[in-house]
Task: structure prediction
Amino acid sequence: MLGFQPDDEQQLIRDTVAEFAREQLRPLAHDADESGLCPPSVVRQAWDLGLVQSTIPEAYGGVGAESSAVTGSLICEELAWGDLALALHILSPQLVTCPVIMLGTPEQKAQILSCYAGPHFTAGTAAVMEPRFDFDLNALTTTAERHHGAFVLNGTKCFVPLAAAATHLLVYARGDKGIAAFLLPQDTPGLSIGEREKNMGLKAVATYELRLDHCRVPASSQLQGDIQPVLNRSRVALSALAVGVARAAYEYAREYAKERTAFGTAIAQKQAIAFMLAEMATEIDAARLLVWEAAWKIDTGGDATREACLAKNYAANMVLTVTDNAVQTLGGHGYIRDHPVELWLRNGRGFATFEGLAII
Result:
């Protein structure tokens, strides 16, 4: 039966990450957005928490803890409450390590995982999205064609986080049997990384366009098995991040409404504001339960494709509504960059199109 109470270990992890988000990420979020830089100091502190290394098997230098989607969703929500862009930067190595742990061959695990189990942050990334208005994950235009015992990759990717600094890139392409994923090192011939993208939100995490021009990779670079469980974990991660952003916006708007007065009364006492805040809280809780249901089904070994898709679609709509309502609650102040709600609205707007930016 699905349970809604984290166990003692999960609660400890959640509290630890929440404290880190409150003490380290939230105070840095505004300046990081303005400068477009993720402070190295906070990356080091996050790495010391062992969020990435914990699920890497001991044989490859990790801690070897059990990989739990529920625990991962709790971590994602708390980090995104602190700041979404910083959270994506911190969690980027999992874009490589999680799929390799799930679908990698013994040779791939030995070659890749130890790179991300050391004492210092190592960037990794995944190339999923494509620069098309009709982008469909199930109809990728990036292709992988077999050629004399190898694969030749052609296509263009966009919104690839930390691509310029990543040690390994996991490229998703359309193969002869559906979606396939290939591990590429930075220096792969035919792989080129463009200039940093200029985005509406997520300004503190560097994203890039990536081009694959007759990029020949050995057959041994392909992950083996069904990619769908990987995609499910990614969608659950994005949904949990959306909940974290929405919760941050709601809590800030709620406290502002309690303190801001109009005609001698706190605006939280006004019916229109009170109803708006109540609806925001309801939508956040509903989205979180969808996330937990999908994560629970993953952890119990079931096919979570339906639940993951429902969670992502609902969370993407919810976070846009909640962050927009937070801006409205603050009135004119909501449009001023001194208040963080405009940042959360810019970040929240992207969830409708985000694919493959995080994984648990």
